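Researcher: Structure prediction, please.
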Amino acid sequence: MTRYLAILILIAFFDIANSQVAIDSSVITLERIYKTGDFSQEWFGPYQWYQNGKYYTKLERSKTIKGGLDIVKYNTGTNKKELLVAAEDLFPKDTNKPLSIENYFWSHDLDKLLIFTNSLRVWRSNTKGDYWVFDMQTKELFQLGKNLPNSSLMFAKFSNDDTKIAFVCKNNIYVENLKTKNITQLTFDGNEDIINGTFDWVYEEEMKCRDGFRWSNDDKYIAFWQVDASGIRDFYMINNTDSVYSKIIPVQYPKTGYDPSSVKTGVINIQNKSINWIPVPGDTKQNYLPRLQWLEDENKIVLQQLNRRQNTLKLWLYDVNNKSIDNFFIDKDKAWIDIDWSDVSQTKWEPTDVIFFNDNKNFLWVSEKDGWRHIYNIDVASGNESLITKGQYDIASLYGYDKKNKIIYLNASPDNSTERYLYSIDLDGKTLKRLTPENFKGVNLYSISPDFNFAIQSFSSVDHIPIKNMVSIPDHKVLTNLVKNDKLKNIVSKLKLGKREFFNITTADKIEMDGYIIFPPDFDPAKKYPVLFYVYGEPWGQTALNRWPGIWHLMLSQKEMIIITMDNRGTPCLKGREWRKSIYRKVGVINSRDQAMAAKEILKKKFIDTSKVAVWGWSGGGSMTLNLLFRYPEIYKTGISVAPVTNLLYYDNVYEERYMGLPQENQEDYIQGSPVNFARNLQGNLLLIHGTGDDNVHYQNTEALINELIKYNKQFKLMSYPNRTHGIYEGKGTRYHLYTMMTNYLMEKLR
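Model: Predicted structure follows.
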């Protein structure tokens, strides 16, 4: 009888499990996030400005070829659509499917299209692949570097006269004649250690350097970087799962305190293939060369040189004709100098050139020399400086300079560091004008057309889902809704969500911090709720921004958790140089104290259950999570640390030495900033997560922490993801598994 009842119960269970259960549209679930894709956003295919901005082109799914992509042209002002390249035109000979377009580039005369496809990942992104050229007139389609290995070409780009394309293959630079299809090899010493035309791991990760060569204006020369990584030791990662025997994966990775690669720049004469090395003074290992550009209409090159400590930046002008070099500008800072001013406005992972104007006699420069991040007009010959953006406020990003109308476009938010808006200002600095209308209150980012007549606006706030608009500038009239996200908007409208509010909190140290809070849907101030702090807290990112929050955090708020994030000193808020640079040599110390002291004030709220306080973060936020658990166990009871740097000496030299100085000179600062040295203080619950294939923050960090926790008999939970990199997304089901585990852990500890 008992067994019979058990069978009936099992049958009933499976009947229920397999029956169609209606989804509650008001509730966010992990299945809806990671399986059904309910919260995915509209696809806006890679776009390119066309005819200087009069038009733009983008990818759209073909209606006639399954899996194919068309390239369409839109009139920027009227949004009138025209098919430029149909998917049926992109079938390579003897194949039955069109090219899968990952990116594309137009020739200067717009007669040819360069298509990037079949890519492979190099460090952070897929920058190695195949390139095909499509002739718009003859409809000819041919593969660039056809006899070279598949998926081996990088950074192909047209010459200015569109007769040739240069590219990198196996760390050497080549040029292919588009008429004859003849390929000329320009460098011959490229190998695993000598890298021509591209960069090593740390230059890409920390300097945004990937594409390592530039055509001259007259196409007679190519300027390029050469990285000598022979002195960089390999860090070995181990792949234990893809074969019976493990595989060793070496990564040339310069750890903090170790010398960087030796880097130099050269100029290749295309006609005779001779190379002239640019004689930049200084030790090639103790100075970085992160930026190189040709001056417009001149055979002159501007080089940026940054010293090892990254607190002195020099601009050099090299004349290709007479081979002279001149240091025409120096900027210094007692802490560090940022070589890019992209803030959250960065839409592409690429370096920015210095903006020259007035026949190259002047240039715009961004500096913090007066205590604020300001734009200066600098005379090349005399060095005289004129401050453009005056006042006690920071710019967030310098977008560009409209030379015709003499207007500078920038991103800023003088009154509220949690927001971003488009501004214009003239060269004398008298007419700073906000262009973003008041109804777009939140974070607004822009991609401006080459003719400065249009811009693609990306907007969101904590209460408004992300959208994209085509706007005219400077009047900021919305011309077209490029991305409405109507489907997502409809789904979100049915969700039961609590309020999202911004606040300011002042700590016992008199530090005022920005933050925002997500309340549960049925919040009752008379009840007590668990709280989850989301943290990052390092100079690389700001979290308390008025933009659309992560859907996972909204899901957790539906489970009656309060979600809070705050920005401490050292984060890139628009609060002046002292705010941002106060963390110098104090990473892990000053930022964790600010977070903890702010949390102390928040925990005075009667609706927070102080026995159920959790914190979580990723990368630098993972490090912050550990520092908070270890240094302030009386506050934080539970933590989830993902991919953390546990010992600052284990991270790369460019990042860590920029913010911490050289460990040879201040070893004690590194000791005090590393959470591994405080692991003995763990009292609460810790879930530690890391990918074993993380080439950014090595799994070594987690193993070092494991040993320290074992030493002091500190119990914790560990999840290792085999061969996953820093983002922990590779492999079917990975993200779903990761966030299921984190959700369950929080539910277990906070409910």
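Model: DSSP finds twelve helices and 43 strands in the chain.
Researcher: Thanks, that helps.
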